[in-house]
């Protein structure tokens, strides 16, 4: 029997300590721990890693604190377009959705794509029709409205400025994600996001792209990324961590270090990632001032953090 472990993230970026009040920090940490506990409960009861990461990400999507699900940012049309993906390390099955609207939990829709279609990635109105067909829970626009996100958008609405979920005072990438190892030694990863504030042309980042923002393989590791999506796509960041472990024999910590600190910065790849390997080693690393994160390993102790 394998050890169980799970890690979550709620985004990374230039998170200002000056802007982080004790009340706000406490709220973020509580939300991260809630997600961890929900996923850990699944693992503790002998559940599959894929169920644990979906459960953890659902909690983060339901929180308005993070740029995913309920807290998603506004696009150029003042609407919400959400992306999500998940991958099962045991058989390399994966599901993903891009540019979906009014879906309460995009990660749940991605799971339906994996389990009930022959596709990996579906998008836009097609994904919305698929959601209807599979009776996925929907919400009206008001459910996704958050005053903080709305003010972020109003500052740049009508311009060509695209923001990575940040104001001038606080730059953060609010993608959420989870990685897990279950009792049977299986790995899984999941990622969900609302994308960029004021994004146009149905822009899609790395989160729903298998190998870029999400990757899991029982032979090596599970990875979920957060940061400047275009850079993570060009670096094929999540898969690259796997490849460095599989083909170069690097430890998980070294593979993550190479990707986060050597390969991403030349591509303006601000951000970070969380990863877990088949031994239960957990790595949470980032190349910017902060990343909302948490983990619990074989010792059962819950950890949350924001800054270094």
Main features:
four-stranded antiparallel sheet; about 300 residues; 9 helices; alpha+beta; Glutamine Phosphoribosylpyrophosphate, subunit 1, domain 1
Which helices and strands appear, and what pairs or packs with what?
Blueprint: E1 5-14, H1 22-44, H2 49-62, E2 82-88, E3 94-100, H3 106-116, E4 121-123, H4 124-133, H5 141-144, H6 147-156, E5 171-173, E6 176-181, E7 187-193, E8 214-216, E9 221-227, H7 229-235, H8 237-248, H9 252-263, E10 271-277, E11 282-286, E12 290-296, E13 302-307
Parallel strand pairs: 3-4
Antiparallel strand pairs: 1-5, 1-6, 1-12, 2-3, 2-7, 6-7, 8-9, 9-10, 10-11, 12-13
Report on the architecture of this protein.
This protein has one domain (5-307): Glutamine Phosphoribosylpyrophosphate, subunit 1, domain 1. Helices cover 33% and strands 25% of the residues. It has 9 helices and 13 strands. It has helices at 22-44, 49-62, 106-116, 124-133, 141-144, 147-156, 229-235, 237-248, 252-263; strands at residues 5-14, 82-88, 94-100, 121-123, 171-173, 176-181, 187-193, 214-216, 221-227, 271-277, 282-286, 290-296, 302-307. Strands 1, 2, 3, 4, 5, 6, 7, 12 and 13 form a 9-stranded mixed β-sheet that branches. Helix 1 runs antiparallel to helix 2 and helix 2 (49-62) runs antiparallel to helix 3 (106-116). Mean pLDDT is 92; it is low at 166-172.
């Amino acid at each position: 029997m394998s050890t169980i472990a799970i890690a979550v993230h709620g985004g990374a970026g230039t998170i200002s300590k000056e802007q982080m009040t004790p009340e706000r920090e406490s709220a973020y940490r509580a939300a991260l721990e809630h997600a961890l506990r929900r996923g850990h409960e699944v693992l503790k009861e002998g559940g599959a890693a894929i169920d644990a990461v979906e459960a953890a990400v659902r909690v983060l999507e339901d929180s308005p604190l993070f740029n995913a699900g309920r807290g998603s940012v506004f696009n150029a049309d003042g609407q919400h377009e959400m992306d999500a993906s998940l991958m099962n390390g045991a058989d390399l099955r994966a599901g993903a959705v891009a540019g979906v609207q009014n879906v309460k939990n995009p990660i749940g829709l991605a799971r339906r794509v994996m389990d009930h279609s022959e596709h990996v990635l579906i998008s836009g109105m097609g994904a919305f029709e698929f959601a209807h067909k599979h009776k996925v829970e929907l919400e009206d626009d008001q459910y996704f409205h958050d005053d903080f996100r709305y003010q972020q958008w109003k500052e740049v609405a009508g311009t060509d400025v695209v923001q990575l979920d940040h104001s001038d005072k606080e730059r953060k990438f609010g993608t959420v994600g989870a990685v897990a190892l279950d009792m049977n030694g299986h790995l899984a990863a999941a990622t969900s996001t609302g994308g960029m504030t004021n994004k146009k042309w149905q822009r899609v980042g790395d989160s729903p792209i298998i190998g870029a923002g999400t990757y899991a393989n029982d032979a090596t590791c599970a990875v979920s990324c957060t940061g400047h999506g275009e850079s993570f796509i060009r670096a094929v960041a999540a898969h690259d961590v796997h490849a460095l472990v599989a083909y170069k024999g690097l430890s998980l910590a070294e593979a993550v270090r190479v990707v986060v600190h050597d390969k991403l910065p030349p591509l303006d790849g601000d951000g970070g990632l969380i990863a877990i390997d088949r031994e239960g080693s957990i790595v949470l690393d980032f190349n910017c001032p902060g990343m909302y994160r948490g983990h619990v390993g074989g010792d059962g102790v819950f950890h949350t953090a924001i800054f270094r």
